[in-house]
Design a protein that fits this description.
about 45% helix, four-stranded mixed β-sheet, disordered C terminus, three-stranded antiparallel β-sheet, alpha+beta, Hypothetical protein af1432, disordered N terminus
C-alpha cells in the first residue's frame, strides 16, 4: 500500500539538482500537451549549432525552476511560518513550472528576433503573455480547479490569478497592483520572476543548467542564498532580504550571467545562426503562418523547434528560399561576420542619432571594399548589450539585506555598507554595461573572391 507521500508526489532525477520531488498536481500539468511541447524547444536557441552540449530544452529547465521555487518558499516558511502556507507554496511551484510555457521555437529567437521582424517593433507580444494564456488554456481543458491536493488544498480563482501574476509580474509601484495575494505577501512575487532585483529561482536554475551543458563554471552558489534568505519589511513592504556578508556571492551571480551571455547566448557565431534561422522563418511565415499562431493557443501548442525540420525537409518551391538558408546552417555556410564596434560612452542610453550615424558609418565601410557595391538589404546591423542584468546600474543596489544582529530589519545596501568609491572591491568593474554593434553580411559564398572582399 502506498504511503501518503507516494500518493501525492512524484520523484524525478534531474542532472542538476539530483532527486527532486514534486506534487501530483504539477505532474498532471507536466503530462499535458501544453507542457510536453517544451521538450522540443531548445533552451539556448541556435547555440546548439555552435556548442555541441547546448541542446537541452525548456522542459527540464521548467521542472528545475518549479523545484527551486518550492525549496526557497519552504526555506522562507521555516523562518516565517505565519507568512506562508501550503497553498502559497503550491502556487509558487506551479508558477515556476509554467513560467516558460509560452516560449516559441528556439526560445528567445522567436519573441525577440522573429516576431519583431514580421509584426513590427511596436508589437507588445512577449513569451510571458503566451505563458499566461497557455496556462489558462490547460486549466480550462484539464479542469485543474477541480483538483484537490492532499485532501485539503483546492485551487481557487484567486490562486489561479496569483499564479499568472507570478509568471509575469508587473513592476510594483506605490499602489499594490496584484489581486492574487495581498500586500503582506509581496515577497512571494520575488521568487519566480523578480522584477525588482533580478534575483530569482529562474536565474538560479538556468545559470546552473546552462553552465553545466556548456562546460562553463558557475561560481554563484544558490544554496547559500537559500540558507541566508529571510523576509524583512523595507519601505512598508515585505521583501526577501539576504545577509550583508553575501554581497560577494551576489556579484558572482551577476558576473556568471554576464559571462554566459557573452560566451554563449550572444556569441557572434550563435547570433549569426540565430539571424539565419530568423531569416528562414520570416520567408516561411506567409506559407506556414508562424506569427499567426501566437493568437490561437491550439495552434501555438503545436509550434516548436520542429518547424526547423519541417522547412529543412520540405520539397515544394514555396519554401525553397527558407530551405536553402537552413541547409547552409547545416553545411556551415554562415553569413559573413564583418566586425563590431563598441560604444564606451557611460551615458545610460544611446540616442537615435548616434545609432543612425554608427550604422551609416559601418555600412559605408562595407561599400568601400573593392568590387561590386554590396546591396544595403544584404547587411544586418545588430545592437547587443552585455551587462549585469540592470543596464549601467550596479545590480546589488536593488537588493535588500539584513545584519546578523538585527535579522528582522531590512536595509538597502548603501545604509549597510556606506560604500565610497575607494572602498569598493578592487575587482568590481567601473562600468556594468557594454554596448556593441555587430555587422553581418548575408553572403554564404566560400570562394576566394568573397574572402578577399572581407
Amino acid at each position: 500500500m502506498a504511503t501518503p507521500d507516494q500518493r501525492t508526489t512524484k520523484v524525478f532525477h534531474d542532472p542538476v539538482h539530483g532527486q527532486i520531488e514534486l506534487p501530483q498536481l504539477l505532474v498532471k500539468i507536466i503530462d499535458t500537451p501544453q507542457f510536453q511541447r517544451l521538450r522540443s524547444i531548445k533552451q539556448l536557441g541556435g547555440a546548439s549549432f555552435v556548442y555541441p552540449g547546448g541542446d537541452h530544452t525548456r522542459f527540464e529547465h521548467s521542472i528545475g525552476v518549479a523545484y527551486l521555487a518550492g525549496e526557497l518558499a519552504k526555506a522562507l516558511r521555516s523562518r516565517h511560518p505565519k507568512l506562508i502556507d501550503d497553498k502559497d507554496i503550491l502556487c509558487v511551484q506551479i508558477a515556476g513550472l509554467c513560467h516558460d510555457l509560452g516560449h516559441g521555437p528556439f526560445s528567445h529567437l522567436f519573441d525577440q528576433m522573429f516576431i519583431p521582424r514580421v509584426l513590427g517593433r511596436q508589437n507588445q507580444w512577449e513569451h510571458e503573455k503566451a505563458s499566461q494564456e497557455l496556462f489558462d488554456h490547460l486549466v480550462k481543458e484539464y479542469k485543474l480547479e477541480d483538483e484537490i491536493i492532499d485532501e485539503k488544498i483546492r485551487l481557487e480563482k484567486e490562486d489561479l490569478t496569483f499564479i499568472k501574476e507570478m509568471i509575469n509580474p508587473t513592476k510594483v509601484q506605490d499602489k499594490w497592483p496584484f489581486e492574487g495575494r495581498g500586500e503582506e505577501k509581496s515577497f512571494l512575487y520575488e521568487i519566480v520572476s523578480n522584477k525588482l532585483s533580478g534575483i530569482d529561482v529562474d536565474k538560479f536554475d538556468y545559470l546552473e543548467r546552462d553552465c553545466l551543458h556548456m562546460g562553463l563554471k558557475n561560481t554563484f552558489d544558490f544554496r547559500r542564498f537559500f540558507l541566508f534568505a529571510r523576509v524583512c519589511k523595507v519601505d512598508g513592504r515585505n521583501h526577501i532580504c539576504l545577509r550583508e556578508t553575501e554581497v560577494g556571492n551576489l556579484y558572482d551571480l551577476f558576473y556568471s550571467r554576464y559571462s554566459l551571455h557573452r560566451r554563449v547566448c550572444q556569441h557572434r557565431v550563435t547570433q549569426n545562426v540565430n539571424l539565419m534561422i530568423t531569416d528562414a522563418f520570416v520567408k516561411a511565415d506567409p506559407i506556414l503562418n508562424l506569427s499567426g499562431a501566437i493568437s490561437i493557443m491550439e495552434e501555438y501548442t503545436n509550434l516548436t523547434d520542429e518547424v526547423f525540420e519541417k522547412i529543412l525537409h520540405s520539397t515544394g518551391p514555396d519554401l525553397q528560399e527558407a530551405r536553402e538558408i537552413l541547409r547552409n546552417i547545416h553545411k556551415r555556410k554562415l553569413y559573413k561576420f564583418v566586425g563590431e564596434a563598441k560604444r564606451n560612452n557611460r551615458s545610460e542610453h544611446i540616442t537615435e542619432e548616434e545609432k543612425t550615424q554608427l550604422i551609416t558609418d559601418l555600412k559605408a565601410a562595407m561599400e568601400a571594399v573593392p568590387g561590386d557595391v554590396i546591396p544595403r538589404d544584404s547587411i544586418e546591423v545588430h545592437r547587443f548589450v552585455f551587462d549585469y542584468g540592470r543596464g549601467d546600474e550596479d545590480p546589488v543596489r536593488n537588493v535588500f539585506f539584513y545584519r546578523k544582529d538585527a535579522p528582522e530589519t531590512g536595509l538597502r545596501i548603501l545604509r549597510i555598507l556606506r560604500i565610497r568609491q575607494d572602498q569598493r572591491a578592487n575587482l568590481l568593474p567601473d562600468r556594468f554595461c557594454e554596448r556593441i554593434f555587430r555587422v553581418y553580411w548575408k553572403n554564404t559564398e566560400n570562394d576566394q573572391t568573397t574572402q578577399n572582399r572581407l
